[in-house]
Amino acid sequence: MSGRRKVLVAGAGVLGLTTALALADAGLEVAVHDPAPPGDNASGVAAGMLAPAFEAALDPLARLHFDLLTAARDLWPALAERAGIVLDRTAALAVGDAAWLEEAAERVRSLGAGVRAVDRAGLEAAAPGLAAAVRHGFAVEGDWRLDAPAALAALRRAGEAAGVAFHQAAVDGAAGFDLLVVATGAGRMLIGLAPELARLTPIKGHILRGPGALGAVLRSSGAYAVPAAGGLLVGASMEPGRDDRRVDSGQVGRLRAAAARLFPLLAEAPMTAAVGVRAATADGLPLVGPSAAPGVLIAAGARRNGWLLAPLVAQAVAAYAAGAEPGPFAARLDPRRTLSSRG
């Protein structure tokens, strides 16, 4: 009979899978429960961007946390090697009108990140079919990406190889386990076990998949395009307070219009829509650490940066489980913190 501590992880999105792998690597006996099929979650719908600079430059809630986002990205090479995930480290590009480009570039520079001008020839090489009106852009090194569905599958395989047991089932309690880790994203079914989940707000998001070839992530005002297996992804809507996964024709139309502005050939191209529901706190950072409920740790609420933050979240949860120092960002992520807007 095993004498190892037993941990139940609720949720098989990126936070649940990376946390389960970290706990198994630390020598704990880990089981992951999720009622949904593998990949049928917000993590599987995501664009897979690991982009501290553009996120901090373009998202007001992320602006104060560039150091934390960068530290999370820097943990990705080791996790990618551990799990067999391919990281695309091609510099991300920004395109748009002159005023938007100037403002975006200045915000990136203010973070201390480098900006490199890219001319039309460079843009055409990275983004064939880009609208002729787009003449200039800039590149940011250090903003990476991965293929989200493939990475989820790789994390699951790595977990299985490390001894993690996976069950397609909901969690209704933690009997028989020494520790419960709640990584259920926007799911609120475990509020009774982790009352802090009541502080999370769902955010619905649409993303489109269409034909095309991209050599780099493309960011612009109000939309992005990223390479994907067999084509490209265009995203994304953010609809706070919505937790349904129905496809909204209005949101699809808006994204199709944004796609056509970047790539005119997409105006009539067949495109498919997918919907994910994420969870967010008032300050945009996830809840990571002990719940007020004994024997429960939380790893939820990463908003739009679940993939980027995953290895940092997993590292912190594993430290808490071992009774070790959870790292320099523990106070910012603590579920007990006062959740107020950070501007």
Task: Outline the secondary-structure elements.
Blueprint (H helix, E strand, L loop, with lengths): L5 E5 L3 H12 L3 E5 L8 H4 L3 E2 L1 H7 L7 H9 L1 H8 L8 E4 L2 H13 L5 E3 L1 H7 L10 E4 L3 E2 L2 H14 L3 E3 L11 E4 L18 E10 L7 E3 L2 E6 L2 E5 L3 E2 L8 H14 L9 E9 L6 E4 L5 E5 L5 H17 L7 H4 L10
Parallel strand pairs: 1-2, 1-9, 2-8, 4-11, 9-17
Antiparallel strand pairs: 3-7, 4-6, 5-6, 10-13, 10-14, 10-15, 11-12, 12-13, 16-17
Helix pairs in contact: 1-8, 1-10, 3-4, 3-6, 4-10
Provide a descriptive summary of the structure in words.
The protein has 343 residues and is of the alpha/beta class. The protein has 2 domains: 1-89 and 145-199 and 282-343, FAD/NAD(P)-binding domain, CATH 3.50.50.60; 92-141 and 201-280, 2-Layer Sandwich (D-Amino Acid Oxidase, Chain A, domain 2), CATH 3.30.9. Helices cover 32% and strands 22% of the residues. The protein is built from 11 helices and 17 strands. The chain has helices spanning 14-25, 42-45, 52-58, 66-74, 76-83, 98-110, 120-126, 148-161, 249-262, 306-322, 330-333, and strands at residues 6-10, 29-33, 49-50, 92-95, 116-118, 137-140, 144-145, 165-167, 179-182, 201-210, 218-220, 223-228, 231-235, 239-240, 272-280, 287-290, 296-300. Strands 4, 5, 6, 10, 11, 12, 13, 14 and 15 form a 9-stranded mixed beta sheet that branches. A 6-stranded mixed beta sheet has the order 8-2-1-9-17-16, with helices on one face. α1 runs parallel beside α8 (148-161), α1 (14-25) packs parallel to α10 (306-322) and α3 packs across α6. It starts with 5 loop residues before the first strand and ends in a 10-residue tail after the last helix.
